[in-house]
Amino acid sequence: MVDEMSIESKGIKLASGAEDKFIELFSEVFGPEKTNNLAIQYGIEDIYGRSRYIDFAIVTDNEKVAIEIDGEGVHEPGKISHEKYYDDLLKQNSIIYKNWKLYRWTDGQMKKYPDKVKDEMVTFLGDLMEQNISEYLPSQKGSTLELREHQEEALESLKNLRAAGDTIALLYHATGTGKTVTAVEDAKSIGKRTLFIAHTKELITQANEKFKELWSDASCGIYMGDIKEKEAHVVCASIQSISQNLKDFNAEDFDYIIIDEAHHGTAASYKDILSYFKPSFTLGLTATPERTDGEDLLEIFKNVAHKLDIKTAVEKGILAEIRCIRIKTNIDISDVRIRGIKYDSKDLESKLFVPERNNVIVDTYINYVKDKRTVVFCASVNNAEDIAELFRKKGIRAEAVSGGMKQSKREKVLKDYEAGEVKVLCACDLLNEGWDSPRTEVLFMARPTMSKVIYMQQLGRGTRKAEGKDYLLVFDFIDNANLFNMPLSAHRMFNLADYIPGGLVLGNGNKKRIEDDVLRRGEKPVELIDLPVDVLDYEHIDLFNWNIEAQNMISQMEFVRRVDVQSETIARYIREGKIVADLEVPCGNTSFKYFKEETLIKYAQEFNWDIINDSNIKEKFIDFVEKMDMSYSYKPVLLMAMLEQCDDNGKVLVEDVVDYFIDYYEDRKCRGLQAEKKKSLYNDEVIDRKKAKANIFSNPFKRFEDMRFLEKCKDIEYIQFNKKIWKKLSGEEKKWIYRRCEERIGEYFGEI
């Protein structure tokens, strides 16, 4: 065991706690399961081609967000050198130039004003957390196919494309005839649920008739305008209706998707649809494969369509097969603290900076895969340099690579690796993004992580196929941990409970199933002959993973939003043991609770709480206004402010709401009336604007927000009525709400 004193005596600088604090607050806002969406130390290039690192990145199919965590004064010229100041400006401008959104917080902010920072996280990042994070996944494999005179040839070609692993195709014909018939026949040959999308009523109606004619035993329906026949086996839909109602469907509802007039495919609505659904095959139909702006339509289609998951890509032969060997160490990380899915940096480094663990890594290479090109993912830059030096002492040409290296040196190292002169690259963060090498045959996962994003990024560096490369071999270094801070491994990543050293984790087609059958018979597959491992050394892996457990559960935050009761009541019932979570995840000094759907229903029935959903939320809001409980007059004043100040979409400037509150209570005082109870800030001779704003957001806004009646907007200056409520409220109902607020205020002040 190496303590902090000995680490610092080596001149190794431990990581600061600012990033850990961000993860802690992020977890409190969104739940620790959402921290899987964060890529840590994400690599980009500035406008001069130099490598830079974003503290945290969130990359979805539609958006890229950079999050920078800074020390106090880090951007003030008086406190840092001009060179550092200008360099930071270049990095920031380059991020924005490359179409990233950029948000910044400081360590001082997070310590002094954690609640404010959490509110800002909800506003800036809330919607993003609902999107699919898939930057690290492979794109679809696709081909362009010209429809000639014989549709049978086209159908045979489509069949062959799928057999070769293609998941997307573009079918074109200059005359504009025969494409729909070919598409219908191809969909029929597969037989699975099909979605046909077009942009005009005529095309949708024609396609529906053609499906009924050629595929008579399948139910066919239209999804357009007021017609919503979404349960049919074949759905012919308008782009407008489907894009506006995506949440009415599950991403896996359709196995085959056809996009007619596919040259419209770059429009935002098409991108939304293509990135949302996850069919086995997507077919685009067009009269011409070239767009007038010169963009290659097939490439656009591949880029905007949903990303393939790695398992599918390997099974289809797009990526290399993956085998795995688990190497157990005697390092105990069970008491390393976790912040969401990020290990506490100081804790982790103090555990891993030990010669014994480094020796295991180097010896493993020499014993198993000597002379194969290998990337070792290390826990830190210093860790990478130590391991590279140890490799060299054992006669292995190895180099450490990091963002701190001069670009010219880094490029030379990577070039030498590609040429085979360097056999081993020891990397911390440089190779997570923006680099891969098809010639890489081996990955060493020696950096413990609980982040799926990081693990998959690292895995992706070696999954490209190359001539002479039979498979990618992954070595997972398994340190001792407890159930809740267990690092990811290939088997945990792909939910494989049985481990055979060197066995397939992912295989092409049904190859993994065939190999598993061979192993069960006690035989050794020929692919494993060159590996010095005992293939009959079976091990059952405890796959408990709270991320997987939690993903289909309801968080405590969502529990509050689903029932008509205050968050304080839920929290108190949990403390008193009246409510027991199905899963509790420790995180720092707190823990996160998750509930099954049936558990929510059980407690709602037990405590006589109503469940709130989109279909009844307007009625619940009206009922809430009718019965409105009041400790102060703030709730009805807020609703009156919202109704008077909001635009046609139910949105209002926060500052206008603050003005309304101050004016309202000043007016009462001017008329000789009591402003509020004695302890209220509105009784002060001069009402403090900052205090008023804070008061509005803590009480009453939070209560309405807990119930999902009001919400913050993407633009932090605004708040708004829940869109589901606002859309359904009639003019008369809005007038009734205003009158009811006036009545409740009258009743309240009459009582006090």
UniProtKB/TrEMBL annotation:
Gene3D superfamilies, alphabetized: P-loop containing nucleotide triphosphate hydrolases (3.40.50.300)
Positions of the Helicase C-terminal domain: 361-544
Pfam families per record: Helicase_C (PF00271), ResIII (PF04851)
Keyword Hydrolase found: yes
UniProt GO molecular function: ATP binding; DNA binding; helicase activity; hydrolase activity
Sequence ranges assigned to domain Helicase ATP-binding in this UniProt record: 160-307
GO cellular component: cytosol
Keywords on record: ATP-binding, Helicase, Hydrolase, Nucleotide-binding
Domain of life assignment: Bacteria
Entry annotated with the keyword Nucleotide-binding: yes
InterPro entries named among the record's database cross-references: Helicase/UvrB_N (IPR006935), Helicase_ATP-bd (IPR014001), Helicase_C-like (IPR001650), Helicase_Restrict-Modif_Enz (IPR050742), P-loop_NTPase (IPR027417)
Entry protein name: DEAD/DEAH box helicase
